[in-house]
């Protein structure tokens, strides 16, 4: 039996709208599962709601706790084979957070992230308690840093000779070869921290203090700094997982 023109039009409308309707009804936990399967170290205690209006409980990226976040999926990147999650948390008893995570077959990244990220001793023995990021974007494509920008402040949770605890270390993010690099410095510029991060989440932290007061040498040595030409240096490596 041949379909009438009207019937063909209706079938075409159904064929076009059905996939959209099915996607719209997907639970958020499936989208988060897709992201977690491709993103190293991403996990959550629980995921609730639809892909348009959901909640992720106690989300973590490796060792970095992000807390409980509102989340929604952007539909258009799906056409390119990418999952893009918009994340937000109002400042109600916790620090505000907003930004996006994008995962594709050849890329991973965050865009326009503003948040305070507790490092939970991740950079020990350096006494860095949190990284405050402001409109930061980092994207890796095929294992190489493709784009990086934004401002960062490293907040101290202990004493670091020469650095005012209230001010910490500040600087910017940029690509440096295949890696993303956070170049941070104290207000005087005598104390510096270079944090280099690779696509797999591995990092190299290189802290330098230029010719401090000799009376501070025992404190620096106790933290693990060693004397080098021009001052003291502490280099640590690890992974964000």
UniProtKB/TrEMBL annotation:
It is found in: Cell inner membrane. The keyword Transmembrane applies. GO terms for biological process: protein secretion by the type II secretion system. One of its GO terms (cellular component) is type II protein secretion system complex. Keywords: Cell inner membrane, Cell membrane, Membrane, Protein transport, Transmembrane, Transport. InterPro entries: T2SS_protein-GspN. Belongs to the GSP N family. This is Type II secretion system protein N. It comes from Hephaestia caeni.
